[in-house]
Protein backbone atom coordinates (compact mmCIF):
# COMPACT_ATOMS: atom_id res chain seq x y z
CA UNK A 1 0.00 0.00 0.00
CA UNK A 2 2.79 2.43 0.90
CA UNK A 3 4.65 1.56 -2.31
CA UNK A 4 1.53 2.12 -4.42
CA UNK A 5 0.98 5.53 -2.82
CA UNK A 6 4.56 6.53 -3.58
CA UNK A 7 4.09 5.46 -7.20
CA UNK A 8 0.82 7.39 -7.37
CA UNK A 9 2.52 10.58 -6.18
CA UNK A 10 5.19 10.23 -8.89
CA UNK A 11 2.72 9.56 -11.71
CA UNK A 12 3.00 12.22 -14.42
CA UNK A 13 -0.74 12.24 -15.05
CA UNK A 14 -2.26 12.02 -11.58
CA UNK A 15 0.58 12.56 -9.10
CA UNK A 16 2.11 15.61 -7.46
CA UNK A 17 2.74 18.53 -9.88
CA UNK A 18 1.00 16.49 -12.59
CA UNK A 19 -1.46 17.44 -15.30
CA UNK A 20 -4.36 16.71 -12.98
CA UNK A 21 -2.79 19.05 -10.42
CA UNK A 22 -2.81 21.92 -12.91
CA UNK A 23 -6.38 21.15 -13.95
CA UNK A 24 -7.35 21.28 -10.28
CA UNK A 25 -5.57 24.63 -9.93
CA UNK A 26 -7.56 26.06 -12.85
CA UNK A 27 -10.88 24.93 -11.38
CA UNK A 28 -9.95 26.33 -7.96
CA UNK A 29 -9.07 29.62 -9.63
CA UNK A 30 -12.51 29.80 -11.23
CA UNK A 31 -14.17 28.92 -7.94
CA UNK A 32 -12.35 31.61 -5.97
CA UNK A 33 -12.94 34.27 -8.62
CA UNK A 34 -16.69 33.58 -8.66
CA UNK A 35 -17.19 33.30 -4.89
CA UNK A 36 -15.40 36.58 -4.17
CA UNK A 37 -17.43 38.63 -6.66
CA UNK A 38 -19.34 40.21 -3.79
CA UNK A 39 -16.19 41.23 -1.93
CA UNK A 40 -14.66 42.83 -5.03
CA UNK A 41 -17.76 44.99 -5.53
CA UNK A 42 -17.70 46.60 -2.08
CA UNK A 43 -16.98 50.10 -3.40
CA UNK A 44 -20.19 50.22 -5.44
CA UNK A 45 -22.21 48.36 -2.81
CA UNK A 46 -21.09 50.87 -0.18
CA UNK A 47 -22.61 53.87 -1.96
CA UNK A 48 -25.69 51.87 -2.92
CA UNK A 49 -26.36 50.88 0.69
CA UNK A 50 -25.98 54.49 1.87
CA UNK A 51 -28.52 55.84 -0.62
CA UNK A 52 -30.98 52.93 -0.55
CA UNK A 53 -31.23 52.25 3.18
CA UNK A 54 -30.61 55.81 4.37
CA UNK A 55 -27.92 54.90 6.90
CA UNK A 56 -24.64 56.54 7.87
CA UNK A 57 -21.40 55.59 6.18
CA UNK A 58 -20.20 53.89 9.32
CA UNK A 59 -23.29 51.65 9.36
CA UNK A 60 -23.10 51.07 5.62
CA UNK A 61 -19.49 49.89 5.86
CA UNK A 62 -20.23 47.41 8.66
CA UNK A 63 -21.62 44.49 6.56
CA UNK A 64 -18.86 44.95 3.98
CA UNK A 65 -16.01 44.97 6.50
CA UNK A 66 -17.69 42.25 8.57
CA UNK A 67 -17.76 40.04 5.48
CA UNK A 68 -14.05 40.58 4.84
CA UNK A 69 -13.21 39.99 8.49
CA UNK A 70 -15.17 36.75 8.82
CA UNK A 71 -13.70 35.44 5.59
CA UNK A 72 -10.53 35.09 7.68
CA UNK A 73 -11.90 34.97 11.23
CA UNK A 74 -13.73 31.69 10.62
CA UNK A 75 -10.47 30.08 9.52
CA UNK A 76 -9.98 27.77 12.53
CA UNK A 77 -13.51 26.39 12.16
CA UNK A 78 -13.13 25.80 8.44
CA UNK A 79 -9.71 24.26 8.96
CA UNK A 80 -11.23 21.79 11.41
CA UNK A 81 -14.09 20.99 9.02
CA UNK A 82 -11.61 20.30 6.21
CA UNK A 83 -9.79 17.88 8.50
CA UNK A 84 -12.97 16.33 9.88
CA UNK A 85 -14.80 15.85 6.60
CA UNK A 86 -13.05 16.85 3.36
CA UNK A 87 -12.00 19.97 1.50
CA UNK A 88 -14.34 19.07 -1.34
CA UNK A 89 -17.35 18.91 0.98
CA UNK A 90 -16.46 22.26 2.55
CA UNK A 91 -16.09 23.82 -0.91
CA UNK A 92 -19.43 22.48 -2.14
CA UNK A 93 -21.37 23.74 0.87
CA UNK A 94 -19.56 27.08 0.97
CA UNK A 95 -20.03 27.92 -2.71
CA UNK A 96 -23.75 27.19 -2.62
CA UNK A 97 -24.23 29.10 0.63
CA UNK A 98 -22.33 32.12 -0.72
CA UNK A 99 -24.45 32.47 -3.86
CA UNK A 100 -27.76 31.81 -2.14
CA UNK A 101 -26.99 34.27 0.67
CA UNK A 102 -26.00 37.18 -1.57
CA UNK A 103 -29.07 36.61 -3.75
CA UNK A 104 -31.33 36.60 -0.68
CA UNK A 105 -30.16 40.15 0.12
CA UNK A 106 -32.65 41.16 -2.60
CA UNK A 107 -35.42 40.75 -0.02
CA UNK A 108 -33.65 42.64 2.80
CA UNK A 109 -35.24 45.95 3.85
CA UNK A 110 -32.99 46.98 6.76
CA UNK A 111 -29.30 47.05 7.60
CA UNK A 112 -29.57 44.48 10.41
CA UNK A 113 -30.47 41.59 8.11
CA UNK A 114 -27.86 42.79 5.64
CA UNK A 115 -25.25 42.48 8.39
CA UNK A 116 -26.41 38.92 9.08
CA UNK A 117 -26.71 37.68 5.50
CA UNK A 118 -23.96 39.52 3.64
CA UNK A 119 -21.68 40.23 6.57
CA UNK A 120 -21.78 36.99 8.55
CA UNK A 121 -23.09 34.14 6.38
CA UNK A 122 -21.42 35.21 3.15
CA UNK A 123 -18.19 36.00 5.00
CA UNK A 124 -18.05 32.55 6.60
CA UNK A 125 -18.81 30.88 3.26
CA UNK A 126 -16.00 32.82 1.58
CA UNK A 127 -13.67 31.65 4.34
CA UNK A 128 -14.56 28.03 3.61
CA UNK A 129 -13.57 28.49 -0.02
CA UNK A 130 -10.30 30.20 0.94
CA UNK A 131 -9.23 27.44 3.32
CA UNK A 132 -10.39 24.56 1.14
CA UNK A 133 -8.67 25.91 -1.97
CA UNK A 134 -5.36 26.55 -0.18
CA UNK A 135 -5.29 23.09 1.37
CA UNK A 136 -6.05 21.39 -1.96
CA UNK A 137 -3.23 23.29 -3.65
CA UNK A 138 -0.85 22.19 -0.89
CA UNK A 139 -1.87 18.57 -1.45
CA UNK A 140 -1.56 18.63 -5.26
CA UNK A 141 1.74 20.51 -5.58
CA UNK A 142 5.25 20.35 -4.16
CA UNK A 143 7.89 21.74 -6.53
CA UNK A 144 5.51 24.16 -8.26
CA UNK A 145 3.43 25.08 -5.24
CA UNK A 146 4.23 28.80 -5.24
CA UNK A 147 3.56 29.08 -8.98
CA UNK A 148 0.22 27.29 -8.68
CA UNK A 149 -0.81 29.47 -5.76
CA UNK A 150 0.10 32.60 -7.71
CA UNK A 151 -1.92 31.51 -10.74
CA UNK A 152 -4.95 30.74 -8.60
CA UNK A 153 -4.98 34.16 -6.99
CA UNK A 154 -4.28 35.99 -10.24
CA UNK A 155 -7.94 35.58 -11.16
CA UNK A 156 -8.85 37.61 -8.09
CA UNK A 157 -6.88 40.52 -9.50
CA UNK A 158 -8.78 40.23 -12.76
CA UNK A 159 -11.98 40.74 -10.75
CA UNK A 160 -10.79 44.22 -9.82
CA UNK A 161 -10.69 45.21 -13.51
CA UNK A 162 -14.25 44.46 -14.60
CA UNK A 163 -16.35 44.14 -11.44
CA UNK A 164 -16.49 47.82 -10.32
CA UNK A 165 -17.92 49.08 -13.65
CA UNK A 166 -20.20 46.04 -13.92
CA UNK A 167 -21.53 46.49 -10.39
CA UNK A 168 -22.06 50.22 -11.04
CA UNK A 169 -24.01 49.43 -14.20
CA UNK A 170 -26.19 46.96 -12.31
CA UNK A 171 -26.77 49.45 -9.48
CA UNK A 172 -27.83 52.23 -11.84
CA UNK A 173 -30.04 49.91 -13.90
CA UNK A 174 -31.62 47.64 -11.29
CA UNK A 175 -30.92 49.32 -7.95
CA UNK A 176 -28.90 47.92 -5.08
CA UNK A 177 -31.38 45.09 -4.42
CA UNK A 178 -31.27 43.93 -8.03
CA UNK A 179 -27.48 44.17 -7.88
CA UNK A 180 -27.40 41.79 -4.92
CA UNK A 181 -29.67 39.34 -6.76
CA UNK A 182 -27.59 39.31 -9.94
CA UNK A 183 -24.25 39.18 -8.13
CA UNK A 184 -25.55 36.20 -6.16
CA UNK A 185 -26.41 34.47 -9.43
CA UNK A 186 -22.89 35.06 -10.69
CA UNK A 187 -21.47 33.66 -7.45
CA UNK A 188 -23.47 30.46 -7.92
CA UNK A 189 -21.38 29.81 -11.04
CA UNK A 190 -18.63 28.76 -8.62
CA UNK A 191 -20.47 25.49 -7.93
CA UNK A 192 -19.74 23.62 -11.23
CA UNK A 193 -15.92 23.92 -11.07
CA UNK A 194 -16.04 22.83 -7.44
CA UNK A 195 -17.54 19.50 -8.51
CA UNK A 196 -14.34 18.71 -10.44
CA UNK A 197 -11.86 19.06 -7.56
CA UNK A 198 -10.99 16.64 -4.78
CA UNK A 199 -8.09 15.67 -2.55
CA UNK A 200 -5.54 13.24 -4.04
CA UNK A 201 -5.54 9.66 -2.80
CA UNK A 202 -2.35 10.01 -0.76
CA UNK A 203 -3.83 12.98 1.15
CA UNK A 204 -7.06 11.28 2.17
CA UNK A 205 -7.25 10.10 5.80
CA UNK A 206 -7.06 6.36 6.40
CA UNK A 207 -10.21 5.27 8.20
CA UNK A 208 -10.65 2.07 10.18
CA UNK A 209 -13.88 0.24 10.81
CA UNK A 210 -15.93 0.91 13.93
CA UNK A 211 -14.42 -2.09 15.65
CA UNK A 212 -10.94 -1.98 17.13
CA UNK A 213 -9.79 -5.17 15.44
CA UNK A 214 -7.86 -5.05 12.18
CA UNK A 215 -8.75 -7.61 9.55
CA UNK A 216 -6.16 -10.00 8.22
CA UNK A 217 -6.07 -8.59 4.69
CA UNK A 218 -5.43 -5.15 6.14
CA UNK A 219 -2.66 -6.54 8.30
CA UNK A 220 -1.06 -8.24 5.32
CA UNK A 221 -1.29 -5.11 3.22
CA UNK A 222 -0.23 -2.55 5.78
CA UNK A 223 1.85 -4.19 8.48
CA UNK A 224 5.18 -5.80 7.86
CA UNK A 225 6.91 -8.08 10.36
CA UNK A 226 10.12 -6.99 12.01
CA UNK A 227 12.10 -9.37 9.79
CA UNK A 228 11.22 -10.40 6.25
CA UNK A 229 12.12 -13.78 4.74
CA UNK A 230 12.79 -13.46 1.03
CA UNK A 231 14.25 -15.96 -1.44
CA UNK A 232 17.91 -15.42 -2.18
CA UNK A 233 17.35 -15.69 -5.91
CA UNK A 234 15.60 -12.85 -7.70
CA UNK A 235 12.71 -14.99 -8.97
CA UNK A 236 9.28 -13.55 -8.43
CA UNK A 237 5.90 -15.13 -8.74
CA UNK A 238 4.24 -18.25 -7.32
CA UNK A 239 6.28 -21.31 -6.43
CA UNK A 240 5.22 -24.84 -5.66
CA UNK A 241 6.81 -25.83 -2.34
CA UNK A 242 6.85 -29.49 -3.41
CA UNK A 243 9.04 -28.82 -6.45
CA UNK A 244 12.14 -27.59 -4.69
CA UNK A 245 13.35 -25.88 -1.58
CA UNK A 246 14.80 -22.40 -1.59
CA UNK A 247 17.24 -20.89 0.80
CA UNK A 248 15.99 -17.79 2.50
CA UNK A 249 17.93 -14.86 3.84
CA UNK A 250 16.67 -12.69 6.66
CA UNK A 251 16.36 -8.98 5.91
CA UNK A 252 15.99 -6.67 8.88
CA UNK A 253 13.01 -4.37 8.83
CA UNK A 254 14.06 -0.72 8.97
CA UNK A 255 11.93 1.36 11.29
CA UNK A 256 11.08 4.86 10.16
CA UNK A 257 9.22 7.68 11.80
CA UNK A 258 6.30 7.08 9.45
CA UNK A 259 6.09 3.35 10.01
CA UNK A 260 2.51 2.23 10.32
CA UNK A 261 3.49 -0.31 12.99
CA UNK A 262 4.18 2.45 15.44
CA UNK A 263 0.81 4.03 14.69
CA UNK A 264 -1.29 0.89 15.17
CA UNK A 265 -2.77 0.26 18.61
CA UNK A 266 -2.13 -3.02 20.32
CA UNK A 267 -4.71 -5.62 19.36
CA UNK A 268 -4.89 -6.82 22.94
CA UNK A 269 -5.46 -3.39 24.47
CA UNK A 270 -8.49 -1.14 24.67
CA UNK A 271 -8.77 2.62 24.55
CA UNK A 272 -9.52 3.82 28.05
CA UNK A 273 -10.87 7.23 28.94
CA UNK A 274 -7.52 8.06 30.47
CA UNK A 275 -5.76 7.34 27.17
CA UNK A 276 -8.21 9.56 25.30
CA UNK A 277 -7.75 12.37 27.80
CA UNK A 278 -3.99 12.08 27.47
CA UNK A 279 -4.20 12.21 23.68
CA UNK A 280 -6.45 15.26 23.79
CA UNK A 281 -4.02 17.03 26.11
CA UNK A 282 -1.08 16.09 23.90
CA UNK A 283 -2.88 17.41 20.82
CA UNK A 284 -3.83 20.63 22.59
CA UNK A 285 -0.26 21.13 23.76
CA UNK A 286 1.03 20.59 20.22
CA UNK A 287 -1.43 23.10 18.78
CA UNK A 288 -0.56 25.63 21.48
CA UNK A 289 3.16 25.28 20.81
CA UNK A 290 2.61 25.84 17.10
CA UNK A 291 0.45 28.92 17.62
CA UNK A 292 3.01 30.58 19.91
CA UNK A 293 6.04 29.57 17.85
CA UNK A 294 8.09 32.29 16.18
CA UNK A 295 7.42 31.11 12.57
CA UNK A 296 3.67 31.23 13.20
CA UNK A 297 3.80 34.68 14.81
CA UNK A 298 5.94 36.11 12.00
CA UNK A 299 3.68 34.68 9.28
CA UNK A 300 0.50 35.76 11.06
CA UNK A 301 1.67 39.35 11.56
CA UNK A 302 3.19 39.57 8.07
CA UNK A 303 0.13 38.48 6.14
CA UNK A 304 -2.21 40.38 8.46
CA UNK A 305 -0.48 43.62 7.46
CA UNK A 306 -0.59 42.62 3.79
CA UNK A 307 -4.33 41.98 3.96
CA UNK A 308 -5.00 45.13 5.98
CA UNK A 309 -3.13 47.22 3.41
CA UNK A 310 -5.05 45.66 0.53
CA UNK A 311 -8.40 46.14 2.26
CA UNK A 312 -7.62 49.76 3.11
CA UNK A 313 -6.54 50.58 -0.44
CA UNK A 314 -9.63 49.04 -2.05
CA UNK A 315 -11.95 50.80 0.38
CA UNK A 316 -10.26 54.19 0.78
CA UNK A 317 -8.30 54.96 -2.39
CA UNK A 318 -11.15 56.87 -4.03
CA UNK A 319 -11.89 58.75 -0.81
CA UNK A 320 -8.20 59.64 -0.39
CA UNK A 321 -8.13 60.94 -3.96
CA UNK A 322 -11.25 63.01 -3.26
CA UNK A 323 -9.56 64.57 -0.22
CA UNK A 324 -6.71 65.64 -2.52
CA UNK A 325 -9.08 67.39 -4.94
CA UNK A 326 -9.49 64.56 -7.46
CA UNK A 327 -13.02 63.82 -8.68
CA UNK A 328 -14.41 60.38 -7.76
CA UNK A 329 -15.03 59.64 -11.45
CA UNK A 330 -11.26 59.94 -11.97
CA UNK A 331 -10.31 58.41 -8.63
CA UNK A 332 -11.71 55.01 -9.63
CA UNK A 333 -8.86 54.69 -12.14
CA UNK A 334 -6.49 54.30 -9.20
CA UNK A 335 -8.03 50.86 -8.70
CA UNK A 336 -7.43 49.99 -12.35
CA UNK A 337 -3.77 51.02 -12.13
CA UNK A 338 -3.44 48.92 -8.99
CA UNK A 339 -5.19 45.92 -10.55
CA UNK A 340 -3.02 45.81 -13.68
CA UNK A 341 0.31 45.58 -11.86
CA UNK A 342 -1.16 43.34 -9.17
CA UNK A 343 -2.31 40.85 -11.82
CA UNK A 344 1.12 40.81 -13.45
CA UNK A 345 3.06 40.33 -10.23
CA UNK A 346 0.93 37.57 -8.69
CA UNK A 347 2.02 34.76 -11.04
CA UNK A 348 5.46 36.29 -11.54
CA UNK A 349 6.34 36.14 -7.84
CA UNK A 350 5.65 32.42 -7.64
CA UNK A 351 7.56 31.75 -10.85
CA UNK A 352 10.59 33.69 -9.58
CA UNK A 353 10.63 31.72 -6.33
CA UNK A 354 10.11 28.28 -7.89
CA UNK A 355 12.80 28.92 -10.51
CA UNK A 356 15.30 29.84 -7.80
CA UNK A 357 15.96 33.41 -8.98
CA UNK A 358 14.92 34.81 -5.59
CA UNK A 359 14.02 33.20 -2.30
CA UNK A 360 10.66 33.63 -0.61
CA UNK A 361 12.31 35.79 2.06
CA UNK A 362 13.81 38.09 -0.58
CA UNK A 363 10.46 38.62 -2.30
CA UNK A 364 8.76 39.40 1.01
CA UNK A 365 11.50 41.89 1.89
CA UNK A 366 11.18 43.75 -1.41
CA UNK A 367 7.40 43.90 -1.07
CA UNK A 368 7.45 45.42 2.42
CA UNK A 369 10.11 47.99 1.54
CA UNK A 370 8.24 49.08 -1.59
CA UNK A 371 4.86 49.38 0.11
CA UNK A 372 6.29 51.36 3.03
CA UNK A 373 7.77 53.86 0.57
CA UNK A 374 4.55 54.10 -1.47
CA UNK A 375 2.41 54.80 1.60
CA UNK A 376 4.67 57.65 2.66
CA UNK A 377 4.60 59.13 -0.84
CA UNK A 378 0.79 59.00 -0.81
CA UNK A 379 0.93 61.44 2.11
CA UNK A 380 3.39 63.82 0.46
CA UNK A 381 2.21 63.89 -3.18
CA UNK A 382 -1.23 64.83 -4.48
CA UNK A 383 -1.18 65.14 -8.29
CA UNK A 384 -3.34 62.66 -10.19
CA UNK A 385 -0.63 61.24 -12.53
CA UNK A 386 1.68 60.68 -9.57
CA UNK A 387 -1.09 58.95 -7.63
CA UNK A 388 -1.71 56.67 -10.61
CA UNK A 389 1.97 55.71 -10.59
CA UNK A 390 1.90 55.16 -6.83
CA UNK A 391 -1.19 52.96 -7.20
CA UNK A 392 0.67 50.87 -9.77
CA UNK A 393 3.62 50.51 -7.37
CA UNK A 394 1.21 49.56 -4.59
CA UNK A 395 -0.13 46.83 -6.87
CA UNK A 396 3.41 45.54 -7.42
CA UNK A 397 4.08 45.39 -3.68
CA UNK A 398 0.80 43.60 -3.06
CA UNK A 399 1.12 41.14 -5.95
CA UNK A 400 4.61 40.13 -4.86
CA UNK A 401 3.41 38.89 -1.44
CA UNK A 402 -0.33 38.21 -1.44
CA UNK A 403 -0.02 34.72 -2.95
CA UNK A 404 2.83 33.54 -0.71
CA UNK A 405 0.86 32.74 2.45
CA UNK A 406 0.39 29.08 1.63
CA UNK A 407 3.98 28.47 0.39
CA UNK A 408 5.38 30.20 3.47
CA UNK A 409 3.25 28.18 5.89
CA UNK A 410 4.02 24.95 4.06
CA UNK A 411 7.73 25.72 4.24
CA UNK A 412 7.60 26.11 8.03
CA UNK A 413 4.85 23.65 9.07
CA UNK A 414 4.39 21.12 6.25
CA UNK A 415 1.27 20.03 4.39
CA UNK A 416 -0.25 17.84 7.11
CA UNK A 417 -0.71 20.73 9.53
CA UNK A 418 -1.80 23.19 6.85
CA UNK A 419 -5.58 23.30 7.63
CA UNK A 420 -5.05 24.13 11.29
CA UNK A 421 -2.18 26.59 10.83
CA UNK A 422 -3.86 28.31 7.90
CA UNK A 423 -7.01 28.68 9.97
CA UNK A 424 -5.01 30.19 12.82
CA UNK A 425 -3.41 32.80 10.57
CA UNK A 426 -6.79 33.57 9.05
CA UNK A 427 -8.23 34.10 12.52
CA UNK A 428 -5.73 36.85 13.33
CA UNK A 429 -6.24 38.47 9.94
CA UNK A 430 -9.97 38.57 10.63
CA UNK A 431 -9.49 40.04 14.11
CA UNK A 432 -7.40 42.83 12.62
CA UNK A 433 -9.82 43.57 9.78
CA UNK A 434 -12.72 43.97 12.20
CA UNK A 435 -10.90 46.98 13.65
CA UNK A 436 -10.98 48.72 10.26
CA UNK A 437 -14.04 50.90 10.94
CA UNK A 438 -12.52 52.15 14.19
CA UNK A 439 -9.21 53.03 12.52
CA UNK A 440 -10.94 54.86 9.70
CA UNK A 441 -13.28 56.62 12.10
CA UNK A 442 -10.41 57.76 14.34
CA UNK A 443 -8.20 59.27 11.65
CA UNK A 444 -10.76 60.50 9.10
CA UNK A 445 -13.80 61.42 11.19
CA UNK A 446 -12.01 62.70 14.30
CA UNK A 447 -8.70 63.99 12.95
CA UNK A 448 -9.94 64.90 9.47
CA UNK A 449 -7.23 63.15 7.44
CA UNK A 450 -6.02 59.72 6.38
CA UNK A 451 -2.38 60.77 6.77
CA UNK A 452 -2.05 59.22 10.22
CA UNK A 453 -3.41 55.90 8.99
CA UNK A 454 -0.97 55.89 6.07
CA UNK A 455 1.96 56.64 8.41
CA UNK A 456 0.77 53.86 10.73
CA UNK A 457 0.68 51.26 7.97
CA UNK A 458 4.01 52.43 6.51
CA UNK A 459 5.67 51.97 9.91
CA UNK A 460 4.37 48.40 10.18
CA UNK A 461 5.65 47.58 6.70
CA UNK A 462 9.08 48.99 7.56
CA UNK A 463 9.24 46.94 10.76
CA UNK A 464 8.32 43.76 8.91
CA UNK A 465 10.93 44.53 6.26
CA UNK A 466 13.54 44.45 9.03
CA UNK A 467 12.23 41.10 10.29
CA UNK A 468 12.31 39.49 6.84
CA UNK A 469 15.77 40.92 6.23
CA UNK A 470 16.91 39.18 9.41
CA UNK A 471 15.30 35.92 8.24
CA UNK A 472 17.09 36.26 4.91
CA UNK A 473 20.46 36.75 6.63
CA UNK A 474 19.88 33.70 8.84
CA UNK A 475 18.93 31.61 5.83
CA UNK A 476 22.10 32.56 3.96
CA UNK A 477 24.25 31.76 6.99
CA UNK A 478 22.69 28.33 7.41
CA UNK A 479 22.66 27.41 3.71
CA UNK A 480 26.32 26.29 3.47
CA UNK A 481 25.78 24.00 6.45
CA UNK A 482 22.91 22.13 4.80
UniProtKB/TrEMBL annotation:
The keyword Manganese does not apply. The chain crosses the membrane at residues 21-50, 62-82, 89-108, 114-137, 296-320, 386-406, 418-440, 452-474. It comes from the Eukaryota. GO terms for molecular function: transmembrane transporter activity. It holds the Pfam family MFS_1. SUPFAM superfamilies: MFS general substrate transporter. Its main location: membrane. One of its GO terms (cellular component) is membrane. PANTHER family: RIBOFLAVIN TRANSPORTER RIBJ. This is Putative monocarboxylate transporter. It comes from Rhipicephalus microplus.
Amino acid sequence: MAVSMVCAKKDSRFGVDSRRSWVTAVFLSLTLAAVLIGQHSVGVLFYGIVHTYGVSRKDASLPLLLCQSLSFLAGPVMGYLCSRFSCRMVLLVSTFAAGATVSSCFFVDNILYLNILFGIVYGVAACGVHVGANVLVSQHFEKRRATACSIIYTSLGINSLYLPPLAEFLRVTYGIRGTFLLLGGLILHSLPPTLAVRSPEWAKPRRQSSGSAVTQPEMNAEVAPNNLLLPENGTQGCHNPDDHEEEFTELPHVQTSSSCINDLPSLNSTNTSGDKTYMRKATLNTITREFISMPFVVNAVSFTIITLGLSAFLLLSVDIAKDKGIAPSSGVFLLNAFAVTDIVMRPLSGLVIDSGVLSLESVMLVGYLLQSLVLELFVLLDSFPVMLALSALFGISNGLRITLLMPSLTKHFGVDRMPLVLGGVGFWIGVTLITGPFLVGHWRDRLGSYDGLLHFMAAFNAALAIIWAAKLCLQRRQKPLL
